[in-house]
Write a structure and sequence with these properties.
Four copies of one chain form a homotetramer. Chain A has 249 residues and is of the alpha+beta class. In chain A, 37% of the residues lie in helices and 13% in strands. The longest helix of chain A has 24 residues.
């Protein structure tokens, strides 16, 4: 299952990466497992800090088990720089194609975030119920793999499918994947992790609000825009807590 | 409560079993308890790896407490090879009769998986909401013990009831038991455990989707078939995580 | 707040109790806290094993903190045999009056079991969704303190209120208390604990089944009767697990 | 972000505080995190025990990480007595303005308590479902920041907004904040913590009761008044449990 570039030659490395950043990526994987966004599946990646055309993610492994030694470097077509026989995630193309399409994105999370799945298979649009999920003022589009590839195993197993998903994502922070899960992106690992967690929390709150019934007073687009782009909250406060717990303090 | 064969002679052993396989069975029991599929009740079994007409399961014990020493060998009529005074599960006949009816099945889980119970007592059919539960494209039939035995204590306490349940199961991976629980089968312990866990998860997701309302875009039978039979996912990734946690790494 | 008998003389002790039985009562308190039936409030009691007119329960203390040293002996009017300045539960009269009215009862649980509360404040009757809650074939009556005492703080703070609650309970295993919680009784500590836990579980399952909609196929009274009175399940299997966890193995 | 008084001079200290009280405040922060009322965000404060015009709260930090060294003293305009470069919560003005408006209040909790959020964005009023939440007989008003400040980032970032929120709170124990969270106040730290926890629990119970359907038999105002003001329950029993767990016994 190891991929190689069309030329059969492994791509060059983008250079060494600060171990503290690798630890952030390891922490991200473990945090998302601890918070119930990931279970035995799903993955998180970061763009190479000094090479725009490379990204970093774990070899194929349950997120709670990832360590720094498991992190691999890939080019944006998801060819490994130095595979050393390690198995890669079959859906790594999600990450490569989003990094290619979105120069602003520095981190990508793909999950089967449980409370979010129902919104991908019904006609109910996700909307922000509270300020922590203000970024959802850009309503997540839903990727329908059937439109691109007919009957499949639902997985994003090549660059063509990855590009189609990136196209649905567009300039949004979140896209749902029908019958599968979602992708969340951000300008840093902490922000992508924060958004993945509060997308899950918001899905629970919105489901409850819909059950209570009657009109729902969602955040307005103006409020979401201010929270997301003009006066962002303090992501670091939660990140420091999550990271300390994930790495055992 | 110890059973003997009609002849009063204990059946012969199918031979010694690799301790690593026994550990898999012990891990399965503990994993299903840790994941909330089993509580103090329910059980998991495996077919003997070298004797098609024998199977292995714990003596009567809460699943979280099972160790290798608790594993017993039984024939397909659920007579013990070597009881040594150990109490057996009253519902072991579920396992024996399914192994008899389904040569393809190598592992059986019986649980009171909580999110699944409501689907066995309403007219709502379980359907796959996401690819992890693609195997549910074969909609679980519902076993109604009243049709077979009238008023009972709901338990499968003999081979006649076990055979009736196996008959309802048919060629499906999952059957619900009205007012009781469900059975899940697979071609290996990891796959049966995986299916039991994602049957529970899918029940939660389907319940939420139904509460959101409107038409639900379930996986199609074609998608479920591809996922289950043609391009199966990587069960090992989750299994390695679950097993490590269950056996204390 | 310490009570004395009308004569001002403390009642005599019913005699020493086997420490293993005291440990069962301590375990019961901790089990019910661990399983989410009790939080910082609620209590469990047992009838004195050799004196029908005495019972045992903890001094006023959060259930998770109870130890053998906290167990007190009371008469059925809830006067303490040997208070030694210890504060008693204000609602101990629930226990005394039920033990007085129900000679068959050997253990009483009073809780604010969260999933059950909604059934006490709506017109929806609790019914058994699965065999583990078969004892609910006797539908729990609802105690309305307003009918007895008008506007109150909702608590059963004297023997008159305790007797009224025992009267509502009648011969049932469970009674709901409107806007407050419930009481569960049994012929032994393990059975009362088992019933308290599965009353909570059943409330969750019934709520989910009702949300799925359509007619619900509850256990029939005949099935509930067989499970409860004629062919009871193996309470010991779960009890051994719960007790081991609660007492630290 | 460090605030100073208009004069540029730091306010004087109200005097030293008993370390056991500081420990109560630290415990409160950790308890509310452990009970799921707070996550990485939200905060709890206490009025200075001997200076009515000062209050104490943590520097900006995730609630689960707070220690005694993190506690700062502020005046009621939320200027720090001794900042020493420490970052303060951006929403500390919630606390200062409530302490100013409500001389009876000794502790304030601000949270994003998840089950409560939906009640702030629908037309469903919170009402007490059981005696533990009897204080909700005073139905929580909903603060709408749009009415005061139009489009914002939803945060209470100055004294004008803090005063508006305090005005909505009025003489109630709880106020909801639309699309944001809630505030809970009390005459002591244990009572404010108790109310914050049971506001969350009550939200869950009320949501479930509404899903069961039909008329709901809430506590009457008379019952709520008796529980809250005339015959209060034993807050200390739960507080002792929570505090012991939060501070590691």
């Amino acid at each position: 299952m190891a991929a190689t570039s069309p030329s059969g030659v492994a791509p060059r490395s983008g250079g060494t990466v600060d171990p503290a950043l690798i630890d952030d990526l390891v922490a991200a994987s473990r945090i998302l497992a601890a918070e119930g966004v990931l279970d035995g599946y799903g993955h998180v990646s970061m763009r190479h800090p000094t090479a725009q055309d490379r990204y970093l993610m774990s070899r194929s492994l349950a997120p709670a088990l990832v360590t720094a030694d498991d992190i691999m470097e890939l080019d944006l077509d998801s060819n490994p720089v130095d595979a050393r026989g390690r198995t890669m995630f079959r859906e790594r193309f999600i990450h490569g194609m989003i990094f290619k399409a979105r120069p602003d994105v520095m981190a990508v999370v793909h999950s089967h975030s449980p409370a979010v799945i129902p919104f991908g298979i019904t006609a109910v649009a996700m909307k922000p119920t509270f300020h922590m999920a203000g970024f959802l003022y850009q309503e997540p589009p839903v990727f329908e793999i059937r439109d691109v590839a007919g009957w499949t195993n639902m997985l994003i197993t090549d660059n063509r499918l990855g590009a189609a998903l990136a196209n649905t994502l567009g300039q949004n922070p979140v896209a749902l994947m029908r019958g599968h899960g979602n992708v969340v992106v951000g300008p840093s690992i902490p922000i992508a992790v924060f958004r993945a967690i509060y997308t899950e929390v918001n899905a629970r709150l919105q489901t409850t609000a819909l059950m209570l019934g009657g009109p729902i007073n969602y955040l307005s687009p103006e409020e979401g825009d201010i929270i997301t782009n003009k006066e962002p909250g303090d992501v670091g406060r939660a990140w420091n807590l999550w990271r300390a717990k994930a790495l055992g303090k």
